[in-house]
């Protein structure tokens, strides 16, 4: 016989036979305790029966006590939050209780076998709860996400209004991060779902660059450098310090630069020097020197950005398929790997993996800022080696295909590599 009863939690015990617990789940394991804590948070927000699960545990009445046939984690979660009584399906016959447990297990599997919610569907569900003014903590417990993320998504949805409907929670949280910056919000709102993460990374990088530039400018002023709005007459660009290369900038300040003049450029802080005594300052030449100095700084920034992007994706090589395949191929065709295959007769596994990607990246031949600048500025590709140009262009093309946004310096680098490759083809 089965009845639904309100039972006292102190009368309920895990099911045992011959002093052996019959629940195969280790409720003391770290993973299980985390799961139990999540359940407990959900039970707090059960409005029909606060502190209780929405799916009733199955109990077997054994004299004056109840044994848990199904629902030990729910039982532990209720104990965790101090629930005194709860509703349960109680059986007087152990076989009937076991049958009910089996049917409950099948139902759980059938539920888990359903198609998982997409990120967009999850976001819509959360937004519906937010529209009902449910507290962030309650929404977080139901959706099993961080309450802070719920709060950021709420703010992001408020900022973009109806446009939030098809946005993921991560995208809404990113929009909230730039609340008050209308231009940044518009970029995140108006881009496609496929593009938003790259747009977000770019906005964060630019915000960090501006912050770093403000810090460098103040440090230069404190060291006695005059910050000019434009290059004074009679001065030429000497060196540009990138916002991402603070170490070199700090060394320059430590060496002493009181009385020097610097200007803020698109790529960093450019220090100036007087033109040679008696020499006329050619404004065109002066402008070119400034551009060259800026490009050298941007070229180095882009090199670091590529390495950082690959590093951020290397844990999941499927997130950069073309790049991973290219670098794995470079690793396998390097002298060391090829030599090993030749002497051992073994075939090295060719599937991309983090180690192969790292080795492939290190085996690439790189181009120089000097060579790229000359090819870009003067159309002369002779300063670049053909093999380095091909390696660099292949990498840039693969990364772009995988969603990496090329910097302006990388666009110029790609164009310079093409000039070199075309010149080699013409010679042949």
Structure description:
Helix content is 56%, strand content 13%. It is an alpha/beta fold. Helix 5 packs across helix 6 (147-160) and helix 15 crosses helix 17. The strands form three sheets. The chain has a five-stranded mixed sheet. A four-stranded mixed sheet has the order 8-10-11-9. A hairpin with a 3-residue loop joins strand 10 (261-264) and strand 11. The protein has 17 helices and eleven strands.
SSE diagram, text form:
Elements: E1 2-8, E2 12-14, E3 16-17, E4 20-21, H1 30-44, E5 58-62, E6 65-70, H2 72-80, E7 85-91, H3 94-112, H4 119-131, H5 136-143, H6 147-160, H7 169-177, H8 182-190, H9 196-222, E8 226-228, E9 235-242, H10 246-254, E10 261-264, E11 268-274, H11 283-313, H12 321-332, H13 335-344, H14 354-363, H15 369-378, H16 386-401, H17 408-427
């Amino acid at each position: 016989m089965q009845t639904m009863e309100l039972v006292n939690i102190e009368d309920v015990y895990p099911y045992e036979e011959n002093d052996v617990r019959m629940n195969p789940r280790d409720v003391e394991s770290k993973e299980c305790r985390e799961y139990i804590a999540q359940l407990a948070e959900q039970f707090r927000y059960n409005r029909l029966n606060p502190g209780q699960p929405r799916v009733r545990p199955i109990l077997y009445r054994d004299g004056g006590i109840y044994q848990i046939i199904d629902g030990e984690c729910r039982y532990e979660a209720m104990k965790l939050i101090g629930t005194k009584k709860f509703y349960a399906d109680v059986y007087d016959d152990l076989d009937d209780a076991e049958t009910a447990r089996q049917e409950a297990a099948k139902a759980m599997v059938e539920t888990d076998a359903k198609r998982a919610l997409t990120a967009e569907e999850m976001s819509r569900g959360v937004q519906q709860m937010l529209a009902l003014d449910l507290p962030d903590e309650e929404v977080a417990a139901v959706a099993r996400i961080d309450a802070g993320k719920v709060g950021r998504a709420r703010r992001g949805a408020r900022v973009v209004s109806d446009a939030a409907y098809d946005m993921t929670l991560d995208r809404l949280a990113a929009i909230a991060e730039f609340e008050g910056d209308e231009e940044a919000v518009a970029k995140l709102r108006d881009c496609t779902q496929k593009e938003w993460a790259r747009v977000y990374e770019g906005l964060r990088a630019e915000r960090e660059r501006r912050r770093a530039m403000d810090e460098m400018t103040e440090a230069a002023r404190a060291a006695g450098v005059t910050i000019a709005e434009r290059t004074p007459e009679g001065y030429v660009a000497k060196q540009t310090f990138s916002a991402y290369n603070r170490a070199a900038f700090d060394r320059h300040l430590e060496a002493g630069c009181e009385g020097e003049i610097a200007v803020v450029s698109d790529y960093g802080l450019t220090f100036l020097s007087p033109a040679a005594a008696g020499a006329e300052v050619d404004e065109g030449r002066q402008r070119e020197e400034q551009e060259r100095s800026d490009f050298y700084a941007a070229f180095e920034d882009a090199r670091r950005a590529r390495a950082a992007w690959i590093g951020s994706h290397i844990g999941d090589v499927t997130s950069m398929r073309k790049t991973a395949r290219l670098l794995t191929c470079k690793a396998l065709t390097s002298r060391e790997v090829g030599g090993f295959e030749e002497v051992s007769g073994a075939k090295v596994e060719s599937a991309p993996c983090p180690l192969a990607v790292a080795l492939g990246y290190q085996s690439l031949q790189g181009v120089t800022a000097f060579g790229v600048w000359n090819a870009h500025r003067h159309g002369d590709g002779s300063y670049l080696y053909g093999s380095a140009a091909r390696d660099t262009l292949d990498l840039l093309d693969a990364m772009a295909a995988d969603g990496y946004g090329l910097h302006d310096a990388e666009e110029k680098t790609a164009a310079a590599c093409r000039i070199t490759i075309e010149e080699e083809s013409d010679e042949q």
